[in-house]
Amino acid sequence: MTNSELVSIIVPCYNEEKTIGLLLDAIRRQTYPLSQMEVILADGKSSDQTLARVAEFQQSGTGLDVIVIQNPRRIIPAGLNLAIQAAHGEYIVRLDAHSVPDENYVERCVANLKDGKGDNVGGLWLIQPGEPGWIAQSIALAAGHPLGVGDARYRYSNVPGEVDTVPFGSFHRDLFDRVGLFDETLAANEDYELNARIRAINGKIFFDPSIRTKYYSRPTLGALARQYWRYGYWKWRMLKRYPGTLRWRQALPPMLVLGTGLLLILSIWFTEAWVVLLTGIGLYLLLLIGASVSYARNYKDWRFLVGIPLSIATMHYSWGSGFLWSIIHSRG
Hints:
alpha/beta; four-stranded mixed β-sheet; 9 strands
């Protein structure tokens, strides 16, 4: 191999002491040669033991080049851009500090890029619980269910092909010369926005389910709510620039929040509105419970009939509320 085969793995991180070691170990086990990989961690001033864990790995003599740079703005797109600017590789592979890629992850990304399958190539998320317990397990299952994530194929599909977006992504370095770096005015949805620019120049986003990575979901409903509120909030900011990228799955949560709120208000004066509200909530709960039955049966844990509906409802209402608040806030 020559230096033109060098892969730069870029990772934004902040307070990831529980998972950063898992990620680095997974990169060390890649089938792609260690001598042709570098890891660039953009750290947002971690206050836990993240950097200590990284230092321990650096001192372990693995042969993997791990570079830590500072991300003073502490937002993901800024960290990604700093890492790209510090990278030396022909190929850029983005990973997350919550992820554990399969051993052939980098090799499969590079092979697809070489074959011209896409300008951005990514694969399948295998969602894992963020901690032990049935609620964390419920959240992980909900995060991979089509009812929770719509048609986001990278969460559940085994069919390769062209898609709107993929998690993380891998690129030829010169792609960023053509479309620009990640948008630092977006604290979330920066990957989807980049993919919109790629598609605008007739580029392709390619999903290959043989590219697989474990991803650790949020461990509690509170953490899940904050995550999805943030996703919804920044999705509206992105859609203002690219309204044509709106998908049906993204319109439903704000409509659910609006419909629930409107019926609650009307029910103060109109009994009919209260009946419609209760009927709607009942049907919604039945739908969520129905989507949970197979999991409860397969795992032999009927608590999932509560945990999965709670998780999906948290995702829907948090995303929709964040989206609507972003609309209001942007007009203020």
